[in-house]
Structures are given as C-alpha cells and as structure tokens.
C-alpha cells in the first residue's frame, strides 16, 4: 500500500461520510465526531492491535479531520 492508496482511502471515507451525514454544525460537533473516531481507534489498539482494523479506524479519524477543515475552517458561516 502506497501513500497515494492511503490518501485515496481518506478521500473515499470523507466523501462517503459527506453524503451520508450533514455538515458539522459547529466546531464542538466536529470535535465530538473526531473524538468518537479516535476512541474507536483506541479500542482497536487495546483489543489486540489488529493492523487492518487500526488502519480503518485511523483512516476514519483522518477523514473526519478533513471534514472538520472543510465544514468549519473553510466556510464563511
């Protein structure tokens, strides 16, 4: 797996979440979503460090960070 593959996975996860769920309404909501995904990554780390599951959760953390930037930091509202 290359860096480009991982970036493609981030973008796929970002686009999937963006079509399934409304934009973050506030920085607090975005933070809560990122924290939830980070907690899920932490659960996978504590549950035996399955690399594929950890990768999937880390991609979700990254995708939600991208969503935070797009929905909160780059909007005028």
In short:
The protein has three helices and no strands. By secondary structure, the protein is mainly α.
Characterization of this structure:
The chain has one domain (3-73). The protein has 3 helices and no strands. Helix content is 79%, strand content 0%. It has helices at residues 3-20, 27-46, 51-73. The termini are far apart. With 77 residues, the protein is mostly helical.
Secondary structure topology:
Layout (H helix, E strand, L loop, with lengths): L2 H18 L6 H20 L4 H23 L4
Helix pairs in contact: 1-3, 2-3
Strand content: under 5%
Distance between the termini: 38 Å
Largest sheet: none
The total beta strand count reads 0
Average pLDDT confidence is: 95
Global morphology: globular
Q: Taking Cα atoms only, what radius of gyration do you get, to the nearest Å?
A: 13 Å
Structure class:
mainly alpha
- Number of H- or I-type helical stretches: 3
């Amino acid at each position: 797996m290359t860096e480009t593959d991982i970036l493609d996975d981030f973008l796929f996860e970002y686009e999937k979440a963006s079509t399934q769920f409304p934009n973050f309404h506030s920085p607090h909501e975005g933070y809560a979503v990122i924290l939830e995904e980070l907690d899920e990554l932490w659960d996978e780390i504590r549950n035996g460090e399955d690399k594929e599951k950890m990768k999937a959760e880390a991609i979700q953390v990254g995708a939600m960070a991208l969503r935070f930037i797009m929905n909160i930091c780059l909007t005028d509202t």
